């Protein structure tokens, strides 16, 4: 059976790509000219296509027209709703060939694969430290810029990362979500609970390289080393 292919008479003079409609060629030409005729009246950000401006405007209006029928959570964009729906369906179509872990999104699988390959494509231009994910590089860059965008509304202390702000807020709320299963003592931070658990297990990971004495906490080892240095200085 013969099928009729759509004829494409309108050819881009720059890259020779062809289009069936003049309007599509005109839209394509904006890529080469760099022109962005559709401008946001609120923040002056410009776009090549009107549909992209319309999507952008939802940021300012805070409108979220796409609502999940299961949990009523709403989204600005249809594709974000589609991604969200996988949470309810449990659908995970993309599987890691190394460890068989599955993912809903291709980007998540790609990020995961770097754990196996060791690839770190995101490189800090200041100190050349590299990262597996772009978000980790962005967080790292704040060390160099000094930027601390996450501010505590109670005491105005600022932090480079949101997770550090969340941990700090527990000082004000008194929340201690990390509980020891042995003695029920609770802690603000998971790291503090981990240190506490060494009391029950008896583990001492930090060892002095001179006398082989071991300690539960690294700061205790540091104090021990300082005392040894002072003793040697007195001899």
From TrEMBL:
Instruction: State its location(s).
Output: Nucleus
One Pfam family per UniProt: zf-C2H2
Q: Family assignment?
A: Belongs to the krueppel C2H2-type zinc-finger protein family.
Report the SUPFAM superfamilies cross-referenced here.
beta-beta-alpha zinc fingers
Keyword hit for Transmembrane: no
Q: Give the record's keywords alphabetically.
A: DNA-binding, Metal-binding, Nucleus, Repeat, Transcription, Transcription regulation, Zinc, Zinc-finger
This entry's Gene Ontology molecular function terms read: DNA-binding transcription repressor activity, RNA polymerase II-specific; RNA polymerase II cis-regulatory region sequence-specific DNA binding; zinc ion binding
Q: Which Gene3D superfamilies match?
A: Classic Zinc Finger
Q: What is this protein called?
A: Zinc finger protein 81
Primary residence: nucleus
Q: Per the database record, which ranges form the C2H2-type domain?
A: 10-37, 38-65, 66-93, 94-121, 122-149, 150-177, 178-205, 206-233
Q: Name one GO biological process term.
A: regulation of immune system process
- Under the cellular component aspect of Gene Ontology, which terms does the record hold? nucleoplasm
